[in-house]
Amino acid sequence: MKDLKENIFRTIITIGAVLSGILVLLVFFYILKESIPFFREVSYKEYLFSSSWRPLSTNPAYSFLPMISATLYVSFLAILIATPLSVGCGLFLSFNTSKKSSRIILSFIDMIAGIPSVIFGFLGLVLLVKFLERNLDMVSGESVLAGALLLSVMLFPYIVTGCTETFMKAKDIYYGASQSLGVSKWYTMRRIILPFARKSIFVNMILALGRAIGETMAVMMVTGNSPIFPKLLGRAETIPSLIALEMGTATYKSLHYSSLYAAGLILIILVLIIQVIAYMINKAGMRRIG
Amino acid sequence: MRAKELMFKFWVILSGIIITVITFGLFLYILYKGIGVVTPEFIIGSPKGIPLGTQGGVFPAIMGSILSGLISGILGGVLGLCTAIYLNYYCKNEIIRKYILNALQCLAGIPSVVIGLFGYTFLVVGLGISKSLLSASITLTVMIIPFISIRMKKALEETSKEQYISSLSLGIPKGYTIVKLIIPSAFKYIMTSLGLGTVFAMGATAPIMYTGVVIVSGVPGKLTDPFMALPYHLYILVNEGLSVEMAYGTAFVLIVIVLFINIACHFTGKNEDV
Question: How is chain B split into domains, by residue range?
């Protein structure tokens, strides 16, 4: 009787695990399979090095270059804006506020990560884009800059939480010693804590970059979506926006359809490269400390 | 030297203040702008006016979001828990274990829009399931499985290893130990992962855009009905320029639901580990 129950439990667990395993593999293989016709049909010179995207014209051209550069432009700019602020904020929360208030502030910053991105897109449109239009004298505020600013706010939780954790750890190790030597708090932060956390800051940056690249709704709503080469104050279209916008119009099994899968595959490869880099830096760091 | 120190102080304090202000400002702004729009009629009414959505309420969207969140939460929760238990206690082959973990991590990194593309072409076009609650929920489930199972695996790992080993050496079967000992002691964390996964599913727009959500519909009565969802409704209101006021109301409802579940998870989860 007991054995039977055990076996049933084991079977249920195994079936569940196998089912999720199958789903995961299915997604990967499906994306790969559907993008193969595109890679077979279109040469890498065209999709990586030419410059125009017009899948529906009679003389179709498929180049991901404008979208890839827009994706990287928006994401890197967002990281460049978010990192200094987040690192500063992390230091502030670890050294300049009471434990209790920093915990409360941190949990609210954490909750930003849970806000649906469509709400960010909405706020970006009514606040940020309007602000840019008014102050920078732009015809339309929908631009790379708007996307990057909005995205940087969405990245705060990822960088702040990661950095603060490291700062707190560094504080536990060094702060007592440096205090008893009479070194000032600010000097300790600048010359001891910050260098100690350098690697962790970098890893958090890279992980946030991975998230930034895949962000769809928020960026799509404020960047204007024209498949042209991105300029700071001009419109642009990122790879996720391209997929989201053209998914419904592409004819099933056409080259256009396959090209969207190819775009998705390129996006995944970008994210994977970023994750692997972060993983390797993390591992190297571990070895040196441990 | 002095100047450097001053600059440093200035930078730290300024960025601390900026991020804190933006964080609280965000929540307060939505709550402040939305609270005037949200009336009982807004919550229990259907979209009205011409074009639809400029007046009336968002009840079908609330129900659609809750239903799709619930279905994908249950599916993803069951599959995620099974995966986590299997990886921690039943998988004997180290290589398979590693591969499954890596695959989950990779899937967690896939942008949600790509999963939406997969759901649309595989479920809706390929298998011929109509644009419906069912296909949208399955797509969302695929999206949250890695999210949930990685967190649940961590939750199981935090339980006492000694208790588990003692229980086994007393001759108590493995499955019984897991059900009666491990799961109860990790219950809070398991529920937290489930809650956060559900919120993640409810807030997602890109995966459901083409798999089941429509601009206007009633409350879905069966799994094969198309449905409305709050994030998509908000997107349409804003993108088509229908009504900014209604958009604030919709954003308010969405953020209140998300915050409520988030805060509940956050504080029950936190008490344990501090």
Answer: 60-272
B47's enclosing H/E stretch is strand B47-48
What is the ipTM for the molecules in this complex?
0.88
Nearest CA in chain A to B122: A30
B12 contact partners, CB below 8 Å, separation of at least 6: A88, A91, A92, A95, A96, A189
Contact B121 A34 (CB under 8 A): yes
Residues B152-178: tens digit of each pLDDT: 998 898 888 888 899 989 988 888 888
Q: Measure the CA–CA gap between A207 and A279, rounded to whole angstroms.
A: 9
- Chain segment B200-239, per-residue pLDDT in tens: 999 888 899 888 888 888 888 888 888 899 999 999 988 8
CATH number listed for the domain at residues A64-289? 1.10.3720.10
CB contact under 8 A, A27 and B81: no
B176 in contact with A, Cβ within 8 Å: yes
pLDDT digits (tens, 9 = 90+) for A23-33: 888 888 999 99
Q: Quick check: helix, strand or coil at residue A212?
A: helix
Please state the rounded mean pLDDT for residues B71-86: 94
CB atoms within 10 A of CB A167: 24
Single pTM value for the model: 0.89
- CATH of the domain spanning B60-272: 1.10.3720.10
- B196 close to A (CB below 8 A): yes
Domain ranges of chain A: 2-41, 64-289
| Chain B positions in Cβ-Cβ contact with residue A252 (cut-off 8 Å) | 121, 125
